[in-house]
């Protein structure tokens, strides 16, 4: 029979139960058993939801206490030496957490493994560390135990494994450099053992995730696929090789020819590959079509999808499976409790739970005929039509503004060198000016006030008053510290994206639409459903109030168009570039209003600029083109005297430096404290023309940086970038830090700048 299934379910829980259980365990407030019971109950609930929705298999191993890649490192015994784990022994819970966070209720603290982004999502995984004489050994029973758990509930478990090539690809070598592929044979032996065990447990199918098949793969990695999979033949369950997040493209034939029993493809991101894969797939293999979007939350247009699927079903029959495009990890759990959403908008949405029933409807329509699900199809049809025709997604004035965009709107009046002179004359800043990235500690007091405002316990006036008091306090602190360009501290912002989403037309925010970012950390991306329009000023009152308290320049603080786009669930009825342009136009108006109100320095944050890069190189230019243009449209309306800053908090720039330069921000502040300024080599070689503030204070650490340390970093920076174009600042915003660390750290930062100024 045609199988309907998902590649994975969000594990955090509709009420973030896992988050609370984890944090309480980490704080030593609850026992291991309590945490494990919460986890077990979540797995059961999520499997039962899939069963109730009529899905035929349940993924097992998609659940994780922290991260699925870390689970594999535990499974294979890839534990870095600093955790002093005896080779081959079971990786216990606290070793696991120490790898994730550096510390756990028991065991010696050690540096946590590195976190990095999972493909082009906002999910972060823990990077496996491989050393030269690495060996692997089966070191966790968790997966097998969960298979038993599912069986005991009467379900058909399909264990999820990250495939051997993807696992190696995601890792990093440590110590003497070597080729990770040298580890493949040893690793395959453990995979074979795992598969054999699963077979013995009666498992029919295993999901083998190899998402790197949608990337530009070097030839030796492609060859490694051909060598590896035959080695997994023998006594094992059937394998469903799963790919997602993009098109197989040049890896299509490779993927189709591997000796596995089924292939899953992403038919949402890359619908065009559906028929081609069907053509290339051998006559006995299963084709699992990932047709329900695991990356976004719009209801599916079921009827047009069926138009596509029916001919395929006629050809393949039960060899056609229906699945989610990728794991549902990347969407929130359940729409049902979102009663605050506008009913019409709500009718357009499907969160994870709702996606399960979409799969079921599609399966029934294929196997029993459309008439069997006529009602559901009718409702889908209505939804599609109301969304397409809705007045709330299109605004004439916004469409007009988009077509009125001219070339000159994305150009500053004069080139940087002229602007810099005018800005210097207007601002009168010292050499190596000091500033911060925007936010100051979000104290419990601030959060309590915002909570009280939401529940109605605090009036809007009282809230404004409290936030103003906070602003006054941070302005005074910054003046006392001697910083040159001040910020208002962002106390009024819950989140840099949500704050603006709440004020702009075209966005909705959910109450509980949480998505796991890493470990127990979740984000709540807003929903960008319609044309974006600015109702009125969003930041001007706060910033002008802050400016009124000081003679020094106050930096206006905005979230850039690309980051607003990247960190939201975005409408899929027009290109992302068009949506980004709308955001840019709205922000442009805000920038101009700030300027009119006398603000002379304006920062437009773009921390998500790089993560928007497509997975395939061939698509980079297209993206960079419109992303740069949107930033420029947002920032270029101002006079030459007004100084535009941008901020990005990561350190890989070398491959996109031309685009970074093309943003033409007067000042860019970036993260560098941990990379010892080496990252500036790229900027220097490229002759990056504008000013740079390389972070000299690693805000991710509670340590207070010493003056000497920062002076050294600045000296290194000054060897690469002329001092007239250097700024002095931390790596990123300070909202997660506490005043007792922030105050001395900034005092040292100012002193470091002063020392170097005197020396130059
Ligand atoms: N202005 C923001 C802050 O300081 C920037 C945050 C970020 O880069 N992620 O918090
Ligand atoms: Zn940052």
UniProtKB/TrEMBL annotation:
L-homocysteine binds at residues 437-439, 490, 605. This is 5-methyltetrahydropteroyltriglutamate--homocysteine methyltransferase. CDD domains: CIMS_C_terminal_like (cd03311), CIMS_N_terminal_like (cd03312). Residues 4-314 form the Cobalamin-independent methionine synthase MetE N-terminal domain. It comes from Caldichromatium japonicum. 5-methyltetrahydropteroyltri-L-glutamate binds at residues 16-19, 117, 122, 521-522, 567, 611. HAMAP family: Meth_synth (MF_00172). Residues 432-754 form the Cobalamin-independent methionine synthase MetE C-terminal/archaeal domain. Zn(2+) binds at residues 647, 649, 671, 732. Pathway: Amino-acid biosynthesis; L-methionine biosynthesis via de novo pathway; L-methionine from L-homocysteine (MetE route): step 1/1. One of its GO terms (molecular function) is 5-methyltetrahydropteroyltriglutamate-homocysteine S-methyltransferase activity.
């Amino acid at each position: 029979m045609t199988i309907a299934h998902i590649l994975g379910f969000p594990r955090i829980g509709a009420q973030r139960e896992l988050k609370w259980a984890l944090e309480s365990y980490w704080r030593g407030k609850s026992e291991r058993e309590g945490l494990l019971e919460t986890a077990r109950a979540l797995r059961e609930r999520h499997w039962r939801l899939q069963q109730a929705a009529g899905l035929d298999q349940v993924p097992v191993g998609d659940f994780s206490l922290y991260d699925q890649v870390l689970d594999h490192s535990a499974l294979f015994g890839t534990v870095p030496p600093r955790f002093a784990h005896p080779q081959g022994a079971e990786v216990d819970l606290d070793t696991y957490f120490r790898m994730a966070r550096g510390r756990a209720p028991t065991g010696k603290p050690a540096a946590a493994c590195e976190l990095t982004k999972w493909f082009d999502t906002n999910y972060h995984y823990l990077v496996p560390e491989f050393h030269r004489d690495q060996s692997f050994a089966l070191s966790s029973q968790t997966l097998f135990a969960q298979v038993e758990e599912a069986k005991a509930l009467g379900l058909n478990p399909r264990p999820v494994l990250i495939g051997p090539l993807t696992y190696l690809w995601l890792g990093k070598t440590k110590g003497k450099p070597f080729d990770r592929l040298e580890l493949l044979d040893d690793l395959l032996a453990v995979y074979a053992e795992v598969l054999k065990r699963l077979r013995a447990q009666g498992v029919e199918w295993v999901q083998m995730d190899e998402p790197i098949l949608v990337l530009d793969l070097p030839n030796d990695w492609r060859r490694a696929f051909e060598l590896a999979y035959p080695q997994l033949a023998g006594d094992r369950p059937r394998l469903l090789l799963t790919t997602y997040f993009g098109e197989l493209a040049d890896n299509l034939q490779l993927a189709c020819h591997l000796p596995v029993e089924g292939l899953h493809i992403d038919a949402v991101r890359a619908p065009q590959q559906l028929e081609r894969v069907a053509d290339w797939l051998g006559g006995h293999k299963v084709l699992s079509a990932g047709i329900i979007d695991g990356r976004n939350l719009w209801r599916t247009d079921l009827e047009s999808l069926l138009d596509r699927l029916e001919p395929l079903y006629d050809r393949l029959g039960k060899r056609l499976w229906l699945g989610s495009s990728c794991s549902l990890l990347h969407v929130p759990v359940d729409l049902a409790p979102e009663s605050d959403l506008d009913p019409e908008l709500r009718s357009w949405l499907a969160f994870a739970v709702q996606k399960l029933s979409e799969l079921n409807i599609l399966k029934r329509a294929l196997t029993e005929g459309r008439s069997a699900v006529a009602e559901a199809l009718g409702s889908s049809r209505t939804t599609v039509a109301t969304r397409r025709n809705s007045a709330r997604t299109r605004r004439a004035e916004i469409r007009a503004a988009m077509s009125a965009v001219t070339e000159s709107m994305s150009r500053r009046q004069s080139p940087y060198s002229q602007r810099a002179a005018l800005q210097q004359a207007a601002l009168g800043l010292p050499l190596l000016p000091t500033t911060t990235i925007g936010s100051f500690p979000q104290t419990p007091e601030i959060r309590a006030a915002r909570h009280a405002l939401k529940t109605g316990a605090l009036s809007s006036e009282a809230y404004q008053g409290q936030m103003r008091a906070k602003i006054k306090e941070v302005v005074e602190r910054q003046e006392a510290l001697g910083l040159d360009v001040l910020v208002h501290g962002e106390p009024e912002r819950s989140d840099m994206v949500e704050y603006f989403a709440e004020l702009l037309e075209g966005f909705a925010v959910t109450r509980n639409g949480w998505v796991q970012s890493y470990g127990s950390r979740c984000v709540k991306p807003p929903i960008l459903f319609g044309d974006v329009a600015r109702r009125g000023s969003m930041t001007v009152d706060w910033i002008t109030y802050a400016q009124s308290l000081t003679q020094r320049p106050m930096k206006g603080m905005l979230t850039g168009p690309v980051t607003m786009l990247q960190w939201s669930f975005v409408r899929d009825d027009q290109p992302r570039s068009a949506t980004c342009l709308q955001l840019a136009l709205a922000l442009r108006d805000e920038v101009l209003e700030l300027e009119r109100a006398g603000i002379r320095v304006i920062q437009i944050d773009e921390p998500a600029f790089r993560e928007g890069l497509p997975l395939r190189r061939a698509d980079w230019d297209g993206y960079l083109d419109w992303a740069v243009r949107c930033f420029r449209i947002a920032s270029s309306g101002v006079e030459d005297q007004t100084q535009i800053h941008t901020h990005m908090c990561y350190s890989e720039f070398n491959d996109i430096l031309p685009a970074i330069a093309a943003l033409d921000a007067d000042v860019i502040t970036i993260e560098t404290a941990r990379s010892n300024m080496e990252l500036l080599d790229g900027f220097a070689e490229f002759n990056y023309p504008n000013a740079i503030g390389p972070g000299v204070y690693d805000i991710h650490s509670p340590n207070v940086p010493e003056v000497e340390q920062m002076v050294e970093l600045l000296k290194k920076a000054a060897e690469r970038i002329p001092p007239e174009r250097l700024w002095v600042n931390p790596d990123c915003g300070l909202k997660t830090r506490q005043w007792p660390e922030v105050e001395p750290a900034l005092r040292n930062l100012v002193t470091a700048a002063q020392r170097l100024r005197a020396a130059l």
